[in-house]
Amino acid sequence: MAKTAEQIRADLLRPVFRSGPAYWLAVGVSGSMVLAGVFAFSYQVYHGLGVWGLNWPVFWAFDITNFVFWIGISHAGTLISAILRLANAGWRRPVTRCAEAITVFALSIGAIIPICHLGRPWLFFWLVPYPSERHIWPNFRSPLLWDFFAILTYLTGSTIFLFLPIIPDAAAARDLAHGWRKKLYALLSLGWQGNPKQWHRLESAMHIMAIAIIPVAVSVHTIVSWDFAMTPVPMWHSTIFGPYFVCGAIFSGVAALILAMALLRKFLHLEEYLEPIHFDHMGKLLLTMSLLWFYFTFAERLTTWYGNDVAEMSVFWSSIRQNFAPLFWTMVTCNLIIPFPLLAIKRFRTITGTVIASSTIVVGMWIERFLIIVPTLEHKFLPYSWGTYRPTWVEITLMVAGFGMMALLYLLFSKLVPMISMWELEAGVRKAPIYRHQAVAFEPSGARARAGVREAEPLATDLSR
Amino acid sequence: MVIDLDRCTGCEACVVACHAENNIGTAGPDQAARGRAMHWIRVERYWEGEFPNARIRFQPVLCQQCDDAPCEPVCPTYASYHTPEGLNAQVYNRCIGTRFCANACPYTVRFLNFYNPQWDKPLHLQLNPDVSVRSVGIMEKCTFCVQRIRSAEIQAEGEKRELKDGEFNPACVQSCAPRAMVFGDLNDPNSEVSRLARSGRATKLLGELGTKPNVNYLQRESWENGKNG
User: Is A434 part of a structural domain of the chain?
Assistant: First the structure.
């Protein structure tokens, strides 16, 4: 049966206000991973980039792989949440907040990596166009500069997109909290009173952001792909890279979102909110992206093979048949062969099934980015300049720190904000009669009625099953 | 520049001269094995045919000073920069070490300072005062010995005359015993390089990529093709 608004608030605010020893253990573990990364980065700055495994000719490897990986993960949230909001899919309600949070955090990690990877990281601000004593602008023709602006725009946009729906929830928490939390929520709720004008403005703002963020998200990963495609280098210089990367980004993003949903469901005891039906819907989306990813990979490889360009074929065979073959076929297994039956057959598309598929996909998509970068750099045009790459402990530690940072940010966030948007859930659950009854108790202003009644739709009853 | 591959003996004197002239650090055997050696010019070795009917070919490769250099537009800070006279310059102070230029370069002739440079003793006593020493984290590459170009230009300007063909040479050309390398002004149709670049043997390295390199390679057709064996 449908949950009342009181129950929803009690269930969702409980994990925000209370944390057990398991939580602090998780914070400790992920915090240590981040600290290890800080140590590795300091070590690298002190000694020089030589402590990485990079060499001549492989000048990018784990660093840019992780960069593309995290920027890809960041496409989970905002894009999916924006599309589902615009499509007014009722089942989105318990999913959006956790998706939007992934975006902001993954993007923050993705934005830090290129700074860490610089030869002189302390000078990263030279990418910012400002009137400096150097009397020179950054080079607007460089895809790296496009990256800088695209990521900054996306980070700003997705932070606003995450923040807007938090306002009413922060107001609800404000009314229950004490001490520093009360001050924090008072600040976050921006003086929210829930009057009709505020609801109207919130809805308009969310609608504008949902529309605006979609082209931004698409452009971000397209521009990331152009870091490669704009160079005259075998297997990089390809027109397919833009859409291929966007597809891969959404693919890995959906997988990451399913994993996050499963973890939240288990550890925050949200079994009654994140139901099998949500995993079923997300599983279908993941299946679509898996097939689309395979289509792009197949099209790219077939075109290369048919073209039979000498330089491209040396990269092609090195990834398919030679030293990178184990990684390549692991990737295909992880991204298609395992997920396809799990997601295509209804009986397997359970929570466990989608979680297994998502786990392999996250691994597979990391390998995919590695295979885009390293085999090409190892096999550029002149065979004399061919080389090999092997990571060092510094790069591996920094990679681990990225995952630690994601976990840490997510853990801390879950203590500040309910991981499911309470007011949207309430608006979806309420049928008009229930609503009228509760309006007296919760929202004397009556403004909520408008939003609630208007947003209630048949799909939303999923929650009451 | 023109490099006559049929004259090159693969002696690597150019490589040594370049290291001495341009203050290029020595990586040491361990780091060199990890791919950290820096050679602004290198002599690539390729074999043609199978033993005993094999022939070795040497190909000195340095920055091709492309007119349409792929390394230039990708640099976010204008460290890789096209000078008005057509040189492909690397402005060390602007470089923040994105390494994008190195990845975009089809010739792989750009190098990162993985560590601060070091020299095996007593090489540290013979640094060239005309060339800046590069610090950790920045890219470097062949400059066509720009310090020699500037020095000759200043000399000619002081004597109120034009630069003469062959008046000065980069270190690699100067040290090339079989005179496989010739340096000069390709814009001057009467210079020796222009004359050689018009030769039927002239080719460009990876010319099909459209980078418009300014290094011309002279070579007979492949031995295996059965011509001019």
Answer: yes
DSSP string across A171-230: HHHHHH--HHHHHHHHHHTTT----HHHHHHHHHHHHHHHHHHHHHHHHHHHHHHHHHHT
**From A123, A136, A382, residue closest to B107, measured CB to CB:** A382
CATH value at residue A442: 1.20.1630.10
Split into its structural domains, chain A has a count of: 1
From the CA atom positions of chain B, what is the Rg in Å? 18
Residue A130: both structure tokens together: 């400002």
> For residue B78, which amino acid is it?
Y
Q: Is residue A131 part of a domain?
A: no
Residue A120 contacts residue B113 (beta carbons within 8 Å): no
What is the biggest distance separating any 2 CA atoms in chain A, rounded to whole angstroms?
A: 79
Nearest to B108 among A57, A120, A144 (CB): A57
The verdict on residue A136 lying in a domain is no
Closest CA of chain B from A373, distance in Å = 10
Is A24 an 8 Å CB contact of chain B?
no
Task: Of A98, A393, A357, give the one whose Cα is nearest residue A251.
Answer: A357
Judge contact between A213 and A161, C-beta under 8 A.
yes
Distance from CA of A352 to the nearest CA of B (A): 42
CA distances from A281 to A182, A285, A321, B168 (A): 37, 7, 37, 73
Whole-angstrom distance, CA of residue B45 vs CA of residue A80: 53
Tell me which residue in A49, A127, A148 faces B114 most closely, judged by beta carbons.
A49
The residues with which B55 forms a beta bridge, in sequence order, are B48
The pLDDT tens digits along chain A (465 residues) read 467 777 888 888 888 888 888 899 999 999 999 999 999 999 999 999 999 999 999 999 999 999 999 999 998 777 788 888 888 888 888 888 989 999 999 999 999 999 999 999 999 999 998 888 888 889 999 999 999 999 999 999 999 999 999 999 999 888 888 888 889 999 999 989 888 999 999 999 999 999 999 999 999 999 999 999 999 999 999 999 999 999 999 999 999 999 999 999 988 888 888 889 999 999 999 999 999 999 999 999 999 999 999 999 999 999 999 999 999 999 999 999 999 999 999 999 999 999 999 999 999 999 999 999 999 999 999 999 999 999 999 999 999 999 999 999 999 999 889 888 888 888 876 543 333 333 333 443 444 444 444 444 444 434 433
Q: CA dist A376 to A67, A237, A240, Å?
A: 17, 11, 16
The parent domain of residue A278 ranges over 5-122+142-464
Given an 8 Å threshold on Cβ–Cβ distance, is B74 in contact with A230?
Answer: yes
Put simply, whether the predicted model's pTM sits higher than 0.80 gets the answer: yes
**ipTM of model:** 0.91
The Cα A58–Cα A373 span in angstroms is 9
| Chain B, nearest residue to A381 by Cα | B106
Nearest by Cα to A213 from A79, A381, A22:
A79
Query: What ranges in A308-350 are assigned the alpha helix state H?
Result: 310-320, 325-332, 339-344
Residue A332 lies in a domain: yes
Q: Is the dihedral of CA B180, B185, B186, B188 positive or negative?
A: negative
Contact A464, A1 (CB under 8 A): yes
Indicate the class that CATH gives domain B2-218.
Answer: alpha beta
